[in-house]
Amino acid sequence: MIAPLxxxxxxxxxxxxxxxxxxxxxxxxxxxxxxxARDHKAYHPFTDWDFLHALEISGSVGEAAGWIPCHLWxxxxxxxxxxxxxxxxxxxxxxxxxxxxxxxxASERAGLPYYPKLQGAIPFTPATxxxxxxxxxxxxxxxxxxxxxxxxxxxxxxxxxxFLEDTLQNDLIKHGFLARTDRQFHFINREYENFxxxxxxxxxxxxxxxxxxRRRARENITITRLxxxxxxxxxxxxxxxxYLDTSQKKWGQAYLTRAFxxxxxxxxxxxxxxxxxxxxxxxxxxxxxxxxxxxxxxxHWGACKHIPFLHFELCYYQAIEAGIxxxxxxxxxxxxxxxxxxxxxxxxxxxSAHYLxxxxxSSAVENFLSHERRAIDRNIxxxxxxxxxxxxxxx
Length: 395
Fold this sequence. Notes:
Layout: E1 6-7, E2 15-20, H1 28-33, H2 49-57, E3 67-69, E4 71-76, E5 81-85, E6 88-90, H3 101-109, E7 117-120, E8 133-134, H4 137-153, E9 158-164, H5 166-173, E10 178-188, H6 195-200, H7 204-217, E11 222-227, H8 233-250, H9 258-268, E12 272-279, E13 282-291, E14 295-303, H10 310-325, E15 330-332, E16 346-356, H11 359-384
């Protein structure tokens, strides 16, 4: 067990910084008080105290999982909250979706321990959102410096802040971090009145393909979208079975425990959209989404029976339809998946920032990242030319 870190920022005597070895070390009201309210368009469910708490109390994160909480908290001398950051000490690189395994291998071959490292992320959640939260530029600078101090005090190889907003990436670059980009596929809601209006924006061939896929997926299948109090324990029982089956096939393990979904149900069910498919009144597949202020986040899916195109229906088309109905600006469908392009999801860049303490390793990674950024930029431009929209409708 790594001992708790307690710091007082000597360069800024009017504020105090400490680490939280559990999110329970700070109150829900204090933590969430630094975030947009749940009814605000900028609300992000994964930085919510209740989401982070659900990960911890369920055992989904912790020392055994290799995700050791060490959240940073900054307050004024009178106790007024100034800044916070969800942080984890990592002993591996699993569950991050920004892959640094090659960096770790190179570091270890050079005789430089790569683990532990400090991860600024939401575990198992490749969704862009706030990673360092501060109510002033001064507090943000203090937060960044506190991360670097923590890295040095624990003798960690570096700091990795992933799926952050591009403005934060720019701030971190000024503090010696390296910039990395990748790409995902998001549905952009151009104020469509309904799903048919979205289809009307596509070329005839793509429109017919989507209609055919939806028709085939829903043959003898009933699909239900559940939110809030409509979600019952039996729905979570069914979904967890799907989640386990698919996770074990895809990754060899399931990151989230059953208790995580119970905790989410208690405190965040109004931010959940659960899509369940039934055959003869028996649940056979499901997709879990979280609702942000202006975004629907597709997170997990699973099925106990293979039905052609059912994955596309539950994860992509149902999400688009729901997002339009709720008037949300976009749907984020998670990591990877060029197949999303033909189904109305467009390539967008994602960002991360990396601080490596060893100068030689940092220089090598910086050289790699400069080439990777150009390749990602080219890839997005090429993929943009293959979107399924009619010419002139992309704008």
